[in-house]
Amino acid sequence: MSRLLHVSASARGADSHSRRFGGQLVAALRRQRAFDVVERDLAADPLPYPGPAFLSASLMADRERNIADKAALAVSERLISELEEADAVVIDTPMHNFTVPAALKTWIDHVVRPNRTFMTTPEGKIGLLRDRPVYVVIACGGGFDAGAGGQEDHLTPYLLYILSTVGLRDVHALRLDRLRRGDEALARAGTLTEQWIGAILAGDDLETQH
Ligand SMILES: Cc1cc2nc3c(=O)[nH]c(=O)nc-3n(C[C@H](O)[C@H](O)[C@H](O)COP(=O)(O)O)c2cc1C
Q1: How far, in Å, CA of 70 to CA of 18, rounded?
Q2: Rounded CA separation 131/185 (Å)
Q3: Is residue 145 within 6 Å of ligand 1 at its C-beta?
Q4: Which of 95, 120, 171, 204 could pair with 134 in a Cys bridge, judged by C-beta atoms 3.0 to 4.6 Å apart?
Q5: CA distance readout (Å), 85 to 3, 61, 89
Q6: pLDDT tens, position by position, 45-95
Q7: 8 lines ligand 1 (CB under 6 A)
Q8: 3-202 has which fold?
Q9: Residues 86, 92, 94: CA angle, nearest 5 degrees
Q10: Would you tell me how many other CB atoms lie within 10 Å of the CB of residue 114?
């Protein structure tokens, strides 16, 4: 059976917009194809920050690692395996302080590892993961209008860049903004999500939507 990895980063549980809209995509993908879904809930099951043992082990050659070094990489290995075994990935996340929330950044720090998921060459970093579709749903309270009241997006470009670093280039992001600006904005986000999911199921060429 095909496998879908669903990574959720919001700590707001049932109130979370990113979880609700991301969950709609997961449900729709499952209706289309009998995916076995692996849930990686970064709020319910918080990951440890990379500590000194992880940092030194991650920079060693595999042949130099002793049992303690390998133990320090165990969480990272499990998270990377979840990615490797997935045929598709859905990530739903809030925007926090213009970028990814700490929980998602910690997941990234575990899965982006030298000589494991990317290697450095004179031509730059080369991703070592097989590419597969990745769908990202981003919930933002504020808006991105030009001028006063607008804000910069340091989340979407960063996520596209870091995922491409490990070889994941077939990435499509839906950025839903103004979610703390009332019911009209929320309804608009619902409509945009439905349209986006429709395009995914139809196999349309998707632009990353901002
Ligand atoms: C600590 C924190 C920082 C936030 N920073 C931003 C931000 O920089 N830009 C923005 O548009 N919204 C920001 N928000 C609002 C959230 O993005 C918004 O509430 C969104 O719905 C969160 O997603 P969720 O509903 O899935 O938790 C922030 C919220 C919190 C709690």
Answers
A1: 34
A2: 34
A3: no
A4: 171
A5: 7, 24, 10
A6: 999 999 999 999 999 999 999 999 999 999 999 999 999 999 999 999 999
A7: no
A8: Rossmann fold (3.40.50)
A9: 150
A10: 13
Q: For the chain, how long is the longest CA-to-CA vector? A: 57
Mean pLDDT of the region 184-199: 97
The partner residues of 29 in beta bridges, in order of sequence, read none
Using one digit for the tens of pLDDT, what is the confidence trace for 93-134? 999 999 999 999 999 999 999 999 999 999 999 999 999 999
User: Which amino acid residue places its CA nearest to atom 30 of ligand 1?
Assistant: 96
Exposure string (b/e) for 171-194, b if CB count within 10 Å is 16 or more?
Answer: bbbbbbbbbeeeeebbeebeebbe
The CA angle 18-204-92, to the nearest 5 degrees, is: 15
